[in-house]
Amino acid sequence: AVRELEEKVKGDEELCVKVVSDGLVRQLVEMLKKEATSEDALKLLLLLTDAGVGQKNVDVARCMIDGGVGEPLVALIGAGTVSLQERAAAVLGNLCHESPANQDKVAKFEGIFPALVNILGKGEDVGPAQEAAYAIWNLTVGHDENSAIFVRLGVVPKLTELLKSPSDIAQENAAGALMHVTMSKEARVAIVQADAIPRLCELLKPTYEPEVSTQAAGALLNLA
């Protein structure tokens, strides 16, 4: 049934938003907890939360959060396969996108901070790391406390290393995360120690994607 629903709503953001309900979320939460069904549940969750972001409808994320997706998502980041880690981190990033209220709720998911930091730069596949950076970016926008927690967990050198990835998405997400992490005073020292500034300056060159350069410039401005 979940696969059928995924096929039905794919490509239609408005329909994605309409089908989100407490009952559906409860079903997806139970599926996330089972190895045999977690991948199907994550695919649909990512589709629905992407639509919530695209439609600027924060109620989609609120419904997911209140329905209990936090615990199984964090568990998958810590112990799932590479593809599950990537999708779970992306969903977490969507859940706190441009919503201070949802951001605060997501920050309370037990173990979310170390889980996201741990998969940065872990393994050869950049997918989980770039989505973890996306989640960190959204968790730290305008939130000094969250930024400080990430800095204390050693996020800065890992994000700096991710800036060197050939992936445009990884570069943009890492620079975006650093831009907001720099709001923490502790981060400024960590950024200098990690030698992040030369790499951020490198990303300003026209050979890089405009979105990457924009985030790098923002990080450098916050350091000025």
Total helical elements = 16
**What value does the Rg take, in angstroms?**
17 Å
- Can you summarize the main beta sheet? none
Distance between the termini: 53 Å
Content-based structural category: mainly alpha
Which H/E pattern describes the elements? Answer: HHHHHHHHHHHHHHHH
Low-confidence stretches: none
**What average pLDDT do the residues reach?**
94
The general outline is: globular
The protein's oligomeric status is single chain
Proportion of beta-strand residues: under 5%
What share of the residues lie within helices? over 70%
Query: Count of DSSP E strands?
Result: 0
Layout of helices and strands:
Blueprint: H1 2-9, H2 13-19, H3 22-32, H4 38-54, H5 58-66, H6 70-79, H7 82-95, H8 100-107, H9 112-118, H10 127-140, H11 144-152, H12 155-162, H13 168-181, H14 185-193, H15 196-202, H16 210-223
Helix pairs in contact: 1-4, 2-4, 3-4, 4-5, 4-7, 6-7, 6-9, 7-10, 10-13, 11-14, 12-13, 13-16
Description:
The protein is an all-alpha fold. It contains 16 helices and no strands.
Short description:
This protein has 224 residues and is mainly α. The chain has 16 helices and no strands. α2 (13-19) crosses α4, α10 runs parallel beside α13 (168-181) and α12 runs antiparallel to α13 (168-181).
Features:
224 residues; mainly alpha; globular
